[in-house]
Amino acid sequence: MDLKLANARVLVTGGGSNVGRGIVHGFAKERARVAICDIDGDQAEKVRAEALELGAAAAEVITLDLTREGAGDRAVAAVQDLWGGIDSLVNNAGWSDAEFFAKDTDRARWQKTIEINLFTAIACTQAALGPMREARAGSIVFISSDAAFGEIRQGIYGSTKAGLIAIARTVAKEHGRHGIRSNVVCPGLVLPESDDAVGASSLWAVGRDQVFDEKQISSLESGIPLRRLTSADDVADAVVFLSSDHCARQITGQVLSVSGGYSMP
Known about the structure:
The protein is of the alpha/beta class. It contains eight helices and seven strands, in the order βαβαβαβαβαβαααβ. It has helices at residues 18-29, 41-54, 71-83, 107-135, 155-175, 208-211, 214-222, 232-243, and strands at residues 9-13, 33-38, 58-63, 88-91, 138-143, 180-187, 255-258. Strands 3-2-1-4-5-6-7 form a seven-stranded parallel β-sheet, with helices on both faces.
């Protein structure tokens, strides 16, 4: 199926590692123009080279810490300067450090989680709405999580991901009349496919087993109806589809779990 995304102007936040990298690859295969916004410029440059090899019409790196004041505006402005507008925004930047809720009492860690997962998406979305409204078209996809529906050791993280769903649906209701679609993808656990799939600033940089060990993974798989974990490509396929105004023109305000049925929102 031709999603008609060739030359689409796309901004992917947190596009350097794991899920974000997979999303960049997905758009590249559709011959889109992709801006990879990431705090880790070196890793983003690797993904840029991969995107061009996969067929991207263009790929550029925007090295920014999106938690900084005005960074969302700068990221969107950079895409406009490059290509004269923005067609698709994917709010993927995220961070997690699992802990049982009663023990998760470090306010600084709460703040970090909220800043990275929620505030970056607010800032980038607000920045993108202006040019999308002028164009009377645009797609925004928020990368949430199955943790948004309540999971053990994911209380603070899950609350930020639930917040993304509320924002996405608000944007859908407020800006549908402007031709803007807003949707959510909730991935299940996505393990990095290789060491090259993550950069030094990724939460996975400490090593996969330090984040999820084999016992935890096995326990999780047993609760998935399809009995398999989600890959970055699985998430990318959903995001790219939802970003296509040709194939998903009548889809907005929706939450799609890409988790093998682990959650069914």
